[in-house]
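User: Could you walk me through two proteins back to back? I'd like the raw sequence and the structure tokens for each, with a short line separating them so I can tell where one ends and the next begins.

Assistant: Of course. Protein one, sequence then structure:
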Amino acid sequence: MDTAREVVSVVIPCYNQGRFLAEAMGSATARHHHVEVVVVDDGSTDDTAAVARGFPVPYIKQPNRGLAAARNRGLEESTGSFVIFLDADDRLLPDAIDAAARSLAAHPESAMAYGRCTMMGPDGTTWPTPGIPTVRTGH
């Protein structure tokens, strides 16, 4: 599989987190893959709609139904071979999308891949982040 030709969908559910949304959307970049960002506004009453409409991405507005319903709606609307769920107040690290797609393509028997997170404060400073165990088998 030529993963560079694969579309990676990044589904961003958002409920009253418009103040974070632009940064989340901006972090969804890749060097080697086409990225499709899908924003699902789960009934926000803040500026989420205005922020999302400032980007050339699919924007879906639905009544507030919760995070799982928003993710499911985004999944229905996405067209990618691979899907990343990114909360509106989170960011993807540089190269995260390419690394995940390469890993999944190299291991087609795998159902998912996940990466390490870095904890960050509201002002963008990084916090000490505890290590996580590596699961190699018996998922």
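----
Protein two, same layout:
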Amino acid sequence: MNNVKQIMKKPITIEDSASLFKAMTHMTNSKISRLLTTNNSGNIVGIITEKDIGFFLLVNDSEKNLTEIPVSDVAKHLIQVNESTPVEDVAHIMNTKNIGSVGVSSSDTVGIVTKTDLTRYYIQNYVGHKRVGDVMTVSYSSMYLDDPIYKIVSKMIEDKVSRLIIKNNENKAKGVVTFGDLFRVSMTMGKDDDVLDNSDPLISVVFPRKGFLNPSGFGGTILAKDVMTSNIVSIDYNDDLVMACTEMIDSNINGVGVLINDQLSGIVSKTDVVKALAELK
């Protein structure tokens, strides 16, 4: 087995005193889903992910603006492994603890390994080992093109997911909404000091990020089709899992649709790939 030092990447960091808005901008511009956080001395102290920020934005009741909330309010403890740890052992740790990345250390944190790195590792080492259908997740959460985003985010919270498949009225999959898509809305609306709320003449202003759950604010006027990423990358049920991994890496996405008889019947994600690797431990 190869050790984790061979696949780790140099960590991209952000100060834990920086704002959530800065972290979201950094993730969006760099097309990444996580940052390691540092203290005033430059030491790595934690990790903040797209999913962490997404759920914080949707359920936290703070009145602060996005530029006023420090990364440290949302960041979590970073789980680390030694650089000599076998890759399959790292997959087992990530699968067991339900995390998307680990820090890699010797005397200090020197790198990071993510589900994307493990997906690349699978491509290089396990051609012909499993089919897509062997590891796919059969169920998936979905909404419709004309559903307003307050319903979209409510569904995300209810199902505890970070992506939704968006369908038309004929139940054909047309796109996907992720936290990344919502970030783009939040970075536009969330910087403003207020947003009009016509539901109560006595309370004419609400905090913008709460508008995601507000049917009378932009949460009711912006629809799923306005924010979704169109066209779902898909793969056949009987294809080699390596093909699905390659599609995810090439398209810079976390999951692809799975077709059975040309019908979307499930999802295979990088999380599923990590589970497959964990079983090889």
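Residues 191-207 have pLDDT under 50 and may be disordered.

Let me know if you want the two compared in more detail.
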